[in-house]
Hints:
Layout: H1 3-15, E1 51-52, H2 61-89, H3 95-120, H4 129-151, H5 159-176, H6 187-201, H7 207-234, H8 236-255, H9 259-284, E2 290-291
Antiparallel strand pairs: 1-2
Helix pairs in contact: 2-7, 2-8, 2-9, 3-7, 4-7, 5-6, 6-7, 7-8, 8-9
Amino acid sequence: MPAHRSAYVLVVRVMGPDSAPGPAVPWQKVLWEHQPYPDNYVDQRFLEELRRNEGIRQYHYWAVVREAGFVGQQLSCVAIFITLWLYMEQGLLSPEKLLLTTLVCALLGYGLHQALTFQVESGCEPRTHLADLQSATLFLSFTFGFSPVLKTLTESVSTDTVYAMSAVMLLAHLVSFPYAQPSPPGSLSLNAALFASVCLASRLPGALHTFAMLSCALLVFALWPCLLQKLRENAPNQFIGVCVGVCLGGVGGLGSLSPGGAVLLALALGSVTLLCPLLLVRLQKQKDNIQGPWDEAEIHEDLSHFLH
């Protein structure tokens, strides 16, 4: 064997695999000390710190279905609003009846909301009834006064364009709605819903129809989510029943005018509230997140004293 080849074998045996020195110079995972190792060298302990699915949240199917019920009922609220508008456009529902129904529902919902608020926040100073009455009176007065203007707001716009804008705005309302904390509703979702309401109300026969439709829109898109959030926090069992009732009401109301639309709504509700939670739970089992020494360092020490 040539002399240079013998010397090469001797060096390999001393340095070990991957050109690493023998046990006399142990490797340390530090950056500030010069070591006789390549920059990308790791020893056998590298994979010992491997962690899988650390901090993964485990979902339960019926718990996810319960939370998805808020999405389903909001979709049904949009369907109920469209159904009421169709009834008014076709002359099957008078604005007086809609106003009376809206007023009764608003009073009942306000009483229930106040009862739930009093139970939870008994130690805080609640908003007075006089302030609530002033806010409601101010809104109704302005809406009633501007109803003739809103009625003629889209006269120069084609009906197809108005319907397309309303559909896009209602879709934006559903997409941007803050389902996790809907009280108060998000500004983007609420403005989109009210914009769609104004567009649809401007196509009704008279100013009183417009006023009734906008009052109903305020109840459905602004006040109802606040009450439903209170039910979700303080009465979970009643919350589930209310969501089911709203979904059935949306399908039944739409089915009285459009059976095909009711079928599509029922399929959408089934997908959102039953199928999507099932897929989430099933796919959660396929998660394989790994953490290890290659991750970025996380500082858990309280560094607030350095800011003073």
